[in-house]
Design a protein that fits this description.
It comes from Phreatobacter aquaticus. Belongs to the universal stress protein A family. This is Universal stress protein. It holds the Pfam family Usp. The chain is of the alpha/beta class. The protein folds into two domains: about 140 residues, Rossmann fold, CATH 3.40.50.620; about 120 residues, 3-Layer(aba) Sandwich (Rossmann fold), CATH 3.40.50.620. It has nine helices and twelve strands. Helix 1 packs parallel to helix 3 and helix 8 runs parallel beside helix 9. The longest helix has about 35 residues. It is globular and about 65 Å long.
Amino acid sequence: MDCPFVARFQGVSPMKDIVVHLDGGPEEASRLSYAGLLATTFGAHLTGLFTSALPDIGLLASPDSAVAAAALFAELETEIRVRATDQAPRMASSLDALAQTSDLVRIDARMEDIVRDSLTTLRCSDLFIATSPYRSGVGALWDPLIEAALFGSGRGTLLVPPGRRAPDVLRGVLIAWRDTREAARAVAEAMPLITRASKVDVVLVDAEPDATASDLARYLDRHGATVTVEVVASDGRSVADAILTEARRLSSDLIVMGGYGHLRLREWVMGGTTLDVIQASTVPLLIAH
């Protein structure tokens, strides 16, 4: 018997359309290193999603200072657009050097519009590469975009921890498994990487090996993956800490896990374990909702 969820997504196709987030920031090189690795591995087309956030006068200005703020914001907007125009040729050249075919999608807009337009691009791709969100620093500006990608794109998102550069090849994959739709969705999105890994560890925390874990192992084995099922006791630790400790022990190059959350007042609220892993992991995460 196959895993009841993952079996719905049988038929592994290579990744042929990868999107990487570009913003001219200090973590761009890390994202591009993974984009280059995957584009080379799969012969994929590479799209650079170049976003520049324009100031939103409606959020920042009071009615009493609207006129003065409008002039200031117009000046800031012009500076941002000019800087983006200067950066765009360099970004296009970087993409060309990493993939056989590439293009640059540029969005200069308020954050709400960036999110909307980006999701349109991401829904017609195989994977989105971004920096791990919910950490302090300049990159926090893009947390709304990455959160929207996780919960609204319908595709997998590869989160690269700050400062992490891609290895020559992704050898070890850890699957943080639960018998849920989200975990199955993540496995389905990661299948092109799972089937190319030297080893795949299916990790369950505080659970006995159940039928779905065995089904998953058999399913992956049929696709040529070398699979081991690991049962880990949290022993007073958080589930996130248990997963990350296993990833370090196993020298995993990638963690695959479901992205859990719920909608509250039209905004997604990230589940506790998902948030903890995203904030603390030094290993890249492939997450799907």
